[in-house]
Write a structure and sequence with these properties.
GO terms for molecular function: electron transfer activity; heme binding. By secondary structure, the chain is an all-alpha fold. The chain has helices at 6-15, 28-47. It has one domain (6-47).
């Protein structure tokens, strides 16, 4: 995959390493986790 979006990465992590059910695409949980991933990546990029 050339580009992976934050919500897709959350779903991949839920299913593969965590062996959990994927979240509903329109859920508050995936929106919150996706926002966290985007924020964490931005902070990491600023530090490096």
């Amino acid at each position: 995959m050339e580009t992976v979006y934050a919500d897709e990465m959350v779903q991949i992590c839920m299913v593969a390493p965590m062996a959990a059910e994927p979240l509903a695409w329109d859920s508050d949980e995936i929106a919150s986790l996706s926002a966290f991933v985007v924020d964490a990546q931005a902070r990491y990029n600023e530090e490096n």
